[in-house]
């Protein structure tokens, strides 16, 4: 099923972060995905990178906002006029 | 509502501004906390940025991305005010970190058990504060980009807009920042005893250079 434009492992590796972030062109996204579908080692690295990013985002987004912050800002804006 | 002394439209302007600010305030405070590494400074930074944004609200194009616009002001405010206060060197060294750093360390430990997510072998055992500690250990230029990326889910283009730099700069800082962060995570995990029996990553061994 190899296609003439199939990427090598090195080419995929160089694009892995951009692939995870969906920052590649549609054509490159497709070609990287095709490689990952066929290469277990690259697919494992991709799963790991994606999982680290997902895990970091989940943990970092749990921050409690000081309760009265908006009220204090609102007061200052009112004073500003 | 404003009092009788307020010029016409001021109350409406404030109402409109706060309606846009409210939904992004939590994420702004979260980012400010990582930028300043201090709750009191984060609180001040968000208030100051809000005031500046309100003053410049006339330049905000209605219908465009308020969050990106506000974060540009927040980040500039941080650069101009807060980093002067807390001049300090990088908390971690900047020596180059090999690719796939964390992945290699996990595999060295014997890898995840069958079916387990390998990232969970480290991250799954860390709490939010420990992860935040790793982010906060990054040198400023990487910490700023990482904060915008991990906390705000901004695209590279949006981060470039916030920082006023080319997308390529964002990409390269993010690339190196992620590797520095992986090493910082590993160190925090080691120091806190989350990872047991792991080798010291700075013992001088070579990282993986190959790829499948």
Question: Short description, anyone?
Answer:
The complex is a heterodimer of chains A (81) and B (212). Chain A is mainly alpha-helical and 81 residues long.
Would you mind describing this structure in some detail?
The complex is a heterodimer of chains A (81) and B (212). By secondary structure, chain A is mainly alpha-helical. In chain A, 72% of the residues lie in helices and 0% in strands. Chain A has four helices and no strands. In chain A, helix 1 packs across helix 2, helix 1 (9-20) packs parallel to helix 3 (40-60) and helix 2 (26-38) packs across helix 3. Chain A starts with 8 loop residues before the first helix and ends with a helix. The mean pLDDT of chain A is 89. With 212 residues, chain B is mostly helical. Chain B has eight helices and no strands. Chain B has helices at residues 10-36, 39-55, 66-85, 101-108, 128-136, 140-151, 156-163, 167-191. The longest helix of chain B is centred in the N-terminal third of the chain and has 27 residues, at 10-36. Chain B is elongated, with a radius of gyration of 21 Å. The interface between A and B is large, with 40 and 54 residues.
The parts of chain B where pLDDT drops under 50 for at least 5 residues are 1-6, 204-212
Outline the low-pLDDT stretches of chain A.
none
Rg measurement of chain B, Å: 21 Å
Could you state the oligomeric state of the chains shown? heterodimer
**Which overall shape of chain A is indicated by the principal axes computed on the Cα atoms?**
elongated
Q: Considering DSSP H and I runs of 4 or more, what fraction of the residues of chain B is helical?
A: 55-70%
Rg over alpha carbons of chain A: 22 Å
Secondary-structure-based class of chain B equals: mainly alpha
Note the main sheet of chain B: none
Element pattern of chain A in H and E: HHHH
Strand content of the residues of chain B, in percent?
under 5%
């Amino acid at each position: 099923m190899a296609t003439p434009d199939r990427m090598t492992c090195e080419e995929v590796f160089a694009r892995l972060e951009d692939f995870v972030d969906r920052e590649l062109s549609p054509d490159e996204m497709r070609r990287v995905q095709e490689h990952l579908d066929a290469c277990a080692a690259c697919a494992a690295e991709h799963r790991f990178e994606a999982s680290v990013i997902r895990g970091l985002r989940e943990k970092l987004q749990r921050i409690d906002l000081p309760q009265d912050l908006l009220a204090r800002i609102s007061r200052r804006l009112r004073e500003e006029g | 509502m404003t009092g009788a002394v307020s010029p016409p439209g001021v109350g409406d302007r404030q109402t409109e501004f706060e309606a846009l600010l409210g939904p992004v305030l939590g994420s702004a405070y979260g980012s400010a906390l990582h930028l300043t590494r201090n709750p009191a400074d984060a609180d001040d930074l968000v208030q100051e940025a809000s005031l500046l944004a309100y003053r410049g609200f006339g330049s905000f194009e209605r219908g465009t991305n308020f969050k990106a616009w506000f974060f540009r002001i927040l980040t500039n405010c941080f650069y101009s005010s807060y980093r002067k206060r807390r001049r300090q060197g990088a908390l971690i060294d900047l020596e180059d970190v090999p690719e796939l750093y964390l992945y290699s360390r996990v595999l060295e430990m014997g890898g995840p058990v069958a079916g387990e997510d390998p990232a969970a072998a480290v991250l799954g055992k860390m709490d939010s504060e420990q992860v935040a500690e790793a982010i906060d250990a990054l040198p400023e230029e990487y910490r700023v980009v990482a904060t915008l990326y991990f906390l705000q889910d901004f695209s590279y283009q949006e981060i470039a807009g916030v920082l006023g730099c080319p997308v390529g700069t964002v990409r390269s800082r993010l690339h190196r920042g992620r590797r520095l962060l992986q090493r910082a995570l590993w160190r925090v995990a080691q120091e806190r005893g989350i990872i047991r029996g792991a080798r010291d990553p700075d013992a001088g061994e070579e990282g993986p250079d190959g790829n499948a």
